[in-house]
Amino acid sequence: MSSETTVGFALHDVARMMRRDFDRRARSGGLSRARWQVLWHLAKHEGIHQAALAELLDVAPISLTRQVDNLEQEGLVERRPDPNDRRRFCLYLTEAAQPALDQLRAQAAHTRKRALEGLAKDDIDALKRILDTMRSNLCDRNSEEP
């Protein structure tokens, strides 16, 4: 097998292992993957509407609605009417979500540190540049072939 054909497998394995390590830590703090992913993405895209968040998370909108309902009942997320479209709601984190986000950030830092252990800063920088280029190469949805 050539190195080109194993790159995808290696990326998938490392991502899966990092996700598993992070999930284990998040579960110990009472956050399932579905919950922490919603909180994490909302922290980066606050004010996003539910359909766009569902697409970002690559989940069915109905599944996300249940998660958002639960997070809203717990006071971690709030829905606000979209000023540009009365049919939609935009999602925002509440102040009560901050402790969970702080916990997630600390757990992410621990997983990242564990994954990058033994790598020189230059190697980490090169890896980041390579992954950014790969992401950019694959991001253009207009060029997707059938």
TrEMBL record:
It comes from Alcanivorax hongdengensis A-11-3. One of its GO terms (molecular function) is DNA binding. Keywords: DNA-binding, Transcription, Transcription regulation. The keyword Transcription applies. One of its GO terms (biological process) is response to stress. InterPro entries: HTH_MarR-typ, MarR/SlyA-like, Tscrpt_reg_MarR-type_CS, WH-like_DNA-bd_sf, WH_DNA-bd_sf. The keyword Thylakoid does not apply. Residues 4-136 form the HTH marR-type domain. SMART domains: HTH_MARR. SUPFAM superfamilies: Winged helix' DNA-binding domain. This is Transcriptional regulator protein.
